[in-house]
């Protein structure tokens, strides 16, 4: 049994794996594909495998993606071979939810102004802070991450409305609606927050009409994928002050081009796709992978967080 | 019955009072003390009454302080007359707790760096964010505000240790200790957060030895009163990197002098005593004052949040 990691875990994490599974040959190799042919399992961040790589990995039966985004995987090549794919979607929920709350609270409690006044050495108490308490959030994609954001928002006294495909009740949502009913609820939302993955249904989901339906004081936050809304539509909404501001962790084009207007707009926060960053990342991925691997080695039990390559999540 | 407000509530708030109490004469007068002599009740932010004013207010029986801090009141003059004093300590808890969490999350999720990189139009994903989850907070003063901070921290998976005079269990604290045992617990704390009022016991409570006992990675936050620790001691701790950083909303001298070193230190956040700011402030003060006044008018029932002028809180 050979397992290929296409990234290099820390020394103690490598040891943890080797101690748990003495019978397995682990290879931890970054940007070197010479071990593909003999790998039974591949553990990857999901951005480095091409269709050719999948063809070369002729023995592989399970690809574990140590990340939530699987859109860069060669879906067809994997689906044709019937390779099992799993991801670690659960492990993003804490850092991402903390990032979402950090950005939201920072804006409500005037931190950008406080920081700026400090740079200017200016003691100014004319700061109009407001509160999360008593406001309403519309959460597009109340899955693992969205529900964790909902849980935290509820702790701050925020009314949470989840929005998903089915409209089926989601955890930590006071209300849940389906995509078809977004327009009805947008006028109530103080924050519109997306953690939607990129799928055929979510691409360009938000149009002009949606931003026109939002409150002029609304904060739009995109922590899902950049293709949820076109730059053109969002720039118009921000320039015409149809909404108050946007906090963007994802973009149509990443890295965001140097001359992009978002960089210098006073009502845009540019976060360079870092909201899931955490020192605990690989540790948590192994906490999922190790028990899954134990079961797999017994009878190829299907791993946690199985991904349906046809649906794309 | 005459009631003197030494600040001016909004029009609709004045109307709310006048409608609720048609039998009362309300005076809303800022910086003009001509109405003191006839006032039965004074409602003040607590910073504008001298011992002479109290002597002039010869009829006054109740001073309602629409703020938490009462240290600027002429304590002796009030105590001698046996005037009832109440404050609105409960109404600060939401905005202050939101501010505390905003600052903490901002630092953990690297918002100052994200904002700075945006100013430099620099897409840099080399950002080392960490998490609140799994950390430990020591909260000096787990009263109304401190417990609300504890509640929010617990929602983020933070272990909370309250620290008060008695060591008596406080809400939303996983553990509570008394002031005498601070030193034992300081080495465990990732954040040391004070919302203590200024009293004889809390003035200069934190000494060199306390900062030396903290983690080098600790974040110290003072949202209580500036006399908790001297500038000299705190500056030393920050310059010698005995702690990672300080977020200060209160200072020994306010406004913070223009040439004070805090302004330009990379490991200090200067917040100009604004953490309790909220658009809902006076509204909430009236929510406390109106029911209290109703009862007072019947039989001088003691108001909510009675302040003991001898103890100072």
TrEMBL record, chains A, B:
Pfam families with a match to the protein in the record: 2-Hacid_dh, 2-Hacid_dh_C
Question: Which residue stretches, if any, does this entry annotate as coiled coil?
Answer: none
Q: Which UniProt keywords apply?
A: NAD, Oxidoreductase
Residues annotated as domain D-isomer specific 2-hydroxyacid dehydrogenase catalytic:
11-302
Q: Out of the domains of life, which is the source? A: Bacteria
Mind telling me which SUPFAM superfamilies this protein's record contains? Answer: Formate/glycerate dehydrogenase catalytic domain-like, NAD(P)-binding Rossmann-fold domains
Q: Does the keyword Magnesium apply?
A: no
Please tell me whether the keyword NAD is annotated for this protein: yes
- Domain D-isomer specific 2-hydroxyacid dehydrogenase NAD-binding: from-to ranges: 101-275
Q: Which Gene3D superfamilies match?
A: NAD(P)-binding Rossmann-like Domain (3.40.50.720)
What's a single GO MF annotation on this record? oxidoreductase activity, acting on the CH-OH group of donors, NAD or NADP as acceptor
Q: Which family does it belong to?
A: Belongs to the D-isomer specific 2-hydroxyacid dehydrogenase family.
Protein name, please?
D-2-hydroxyacid dehydrogenase
